[in-house]
Specification:
By secondary structure, the chain is of the alpha+beta class. It has a single domain, classed as Aspartate Aminotransferase, domain 1. The protein is about 30% helix and about 25% strand. The chain starts with a helix and ends with a helix.
Amino acid sequence: MVTVADVRALARTLPRSSEHLIRDRVKFRVGSIVYVAFSRDEESMGFGYPRDERDALIAAEPHLFFLPGHADLRFNWVCCHAGRLDSTYMTELVTEAWRMCVPKFLARQRLGR
């Protein structure tokens, strides 16, 4: 089970990442771009993900992933049940969401090619 504390520990290691509490929701941003956000009850986590790939992700693991609310479908965003996510998978998803928000040179410095 992944918690806000787990994501926080990872996000602190990511350059330019910052944590914010917005309308009682924990969000992680790079500048003004949110790349991870938790629901108010912290049971679900939304994260940046390529829009053209999200249907395949959800189809592959429908017990774990789901689409965001109707108003957020226009964004590059997917949601998951935090309680069903393991820390290794969380690390991959959060890091890739962060990578989508930072300059390419910074992502290469942190992640390599």
